[in-house]
Amino acid sequence: MKKLLMLSIGLLVTPFIEAQDITDAIRYSMDEIEGTARYRAMSGAFGALGGDMSSVNINPAGSAIFNNSHASISLGLTNNKNDVNYFSGNNSSSNSNVDLNQLGAAFIFENINTNSKWKKFSLSVAYDRSANFDDDWVASGQNTNSIDSYFLSFTNNVEIPFGVLKLQPGENIEQAYAAIGRTNGYAMQQAFLGYWSGIIDPENPDNNTNDDETNYLSNIASGNFNQNYLYSSTGYNGKLAFNFAADYDDKLYFGINLNSHFIDYEKFTQLRETNSNTGSLVNNLVFENLLSTTGSGFSVQLGTIAKLTNELRVGLTYNSPTWYRISEELVQGIDSNIADPEIGYISSVTNVYEEYKLQTPGKITASLAYVFGKKGLLSFDYSLKDYSNTKFKPTSDILFSSLNNDINNNLTAAATYKVGGEYRYKQISFRGGYRFEESPYEDNNSYGDLNGYSLGLGYNFGNLNLDFAFSQAKRDVEYQLYNIGLTDSASIESKITNFVLTLGFNI
Predict the structure, then answer these.
(1) How many CB atoms lie within 10 A of CB 101?
(2) CB neighbours of 417 closer than 8 A, spacing ≥ 6?
(3) Could you tell me how far CA 127 lies from the centroid of its own chain?
């Protein structure tokens, strides 16, 4: 066979990549506690408080609480620690990164009409990182299921004639891989990988001239399989809020946010499998997938804060759904001890998939705060988000329709509880908080509830404030390796630790 040296081949697949699943819906729908150090030190319980740049991203009315124009910038250090169990194999991993958590400014305009009850107005621009996707871990153990079940599942679910997997005259492997993806879709493309890597063969290997053959067998004999699965992801989900708020009689505050969202996400997975099973032609293999995702979205927030007394405040916020447009690219690589020598060339082929839409669920937040004059405060937030309302679009697409049904059947409404407090002694502020997030799944065994706590200190220099926060959150997750075939899960105990430093100043 002739070899064609190429850097990449772009292709469009009809209708869509078949890799979207419920985990994608969860990933882009959840909000982390990012933002300023004061906000994080109180576990994000700011819905009825305002007066902080990150509180603007919780309740748009919060910017009208400022007495002076204000700006802040926050840097954060995040550490992800994962303890992974996979068929009695235990692994631990830890990684850290430094990011810009928050940047924003609020401009306050006093009403020159002293007879009006509209005291002041604010215009703000606030950026907050709403999710950090940087993570990596390894799962290793001895399984009785092989990756061959992944490739055979595609041939069992769809009748794939052997002739489709064969090379055409003058065609090489990477050209055939690209053409199959373009004309026949993702499922046949995976069967192509299974065949040319030597993992599967037609049921009648001596009758390879039979292009109509649709039955396939594995070249991997049953037994025990040593598996090592590497997961590595990078990226973030960010939100840029354009805010307007007003103060009515120093008792009622109203605000609106027009939010621009953006996704930058990359996930790399690698499965290495070895066996010494009698009769197995494939004894070692490696299967890699690199998925790159970019997206942009839009949402609206409406919020109000009411001072019932000088001490007691209540807040209410509505977050609309976020409407995303998402693009994805996939690069795959596969090899085994009996693979065709040219199979390595497919790792230079980039699958560019058709853009799709994702609608994440809206959220309602009710808040209550009590302010003890200049001594301190206590604050509580309750949020509710129905994850079953997540939708992949177009809903008329048969794949997305099925996925949306799975989302509706498996996801549910989840509540988040946040409580925070602050005590001031002269120029020093001591802060603490706790949050609890319910699992978005009906069955929370696969994705557990989250528990987190936070601590912080702040020092007020007058027109300048310096704040520091420490926070930690834990969640247990059952991570399924593949959506089909090899569906075994790794049990992950995840602990996320954050350190945030914020510089704020009046302008």
Answers:
(1) 28
(2) 380, 381, 382, 435, 436, 437
(3) 18
